[in-house]
Amino acid sequence: MRLSLLMATTILLAAGCTQTPVPYQVNKTTDHPSNLNPIQFPLGVTQERLGPNQYRITAKLAELGTQERARAMALYHASILTEEKQFEGFVIKQKNGGSWCHSLRNNKTKSVTDVDGGVSARITIELMNSQNAGSEKFLKAENVKLTSKKTMDKVLSEQELAFVKEEREEHCEANARKRTNRLRTAL
């Protein structure tokens, strides 16, 4: 009974915390590549240094975040980092995005329940000046900063928020069903 009450309280608190978008904030910076999965990163931006001028930037948002906003946040941070390191711009070497779900597993009933979820965007960039870009698509930091900031600051309507939340819940529930089935068939 206590465990059920604790779980219900945790779910309610988690749901209450996700009603406002995750603000742009750098929550983790490393001088080496991390082997962590984006689900293990804190909400916000994580920056990993891969080489002298190479970085991997991950933006992780909560339940009401959109893939578009996660990409914009990663690009916004890339442009700020570029300016801090005194480069003109950057080239995107790799990009991917996805969604994540945090789940609770009940060993007694062999079921998995998803508590919350969100989206993430990850880009690997190389900082450089325009004359070094060659044939690669060069992104000028100041231009990227302006356009990505507009996307990040866009306020979604109640209808758009409801759609995003419903879409995320459906995705996480489907993942929970798959994990429950795998868990039960493994026995």
From TrEMBL:
Protein name: Lipoprotein
Protein origin, superkingdom: Bacteria
